[in-house]
Amino acid sequence: MELTQENPDVDAYLAVGEAVDHDHPLVRATAERISLTHPEAYSYAKASYEFVRDTIPHSQDSGDPRVTWRASDVLEQGTGICYAKSVAYAALLRARGIPAALCYQRLADDDGTNPVIHGLVAVRLPGEERWARQDVRGNVPPGVDAQFSIEEERLAWVVRPEIDEVDYPVLHAEPHPVVLHALRAATDRPHLWRTLPTEL
Q: Can you give the residue ranges of the Transglutaminase-like domain (predicted)?
């Protein structure tokens, strides 16, 4: 799939935003800590990916009712759904000068019911001409095996067009407005679950 930048200027994917707040002291401190042992761009991108994927539980998996939407909140509270974890990963990448974009899939149950938008991150390492999508949601349920990969996608789920699942090709500098509205309007995760967007 060919990914398309919403903004043609790659610097847009390095910018500080309301959600991708990598100018926040906690985001910068976390990035500094990871880069101490992983100073090279590829190594840092992989290590920060694994940090978000593995040490920040998806709130559905952990049963945490809190809803986070800013990168700094995700890191401070140690929780978030796929959208929020993606924002945190994007912020850690941008904090080290690595362009990062937010992108999405539309997934559904095996019979095509209960569609939902799933959040991903696309990274563009120095010297690379193309973006590579990553999934930091967390490898739950059993059998899911998302991994950091630049050459070949290793996402949690591959879309099934026959049941109207979709890979959205657009790369966003900030969360899609529909996604951001759902996060900000939710009083808790059960409320968010009832209002998750089903399409972009």
A: 29-134
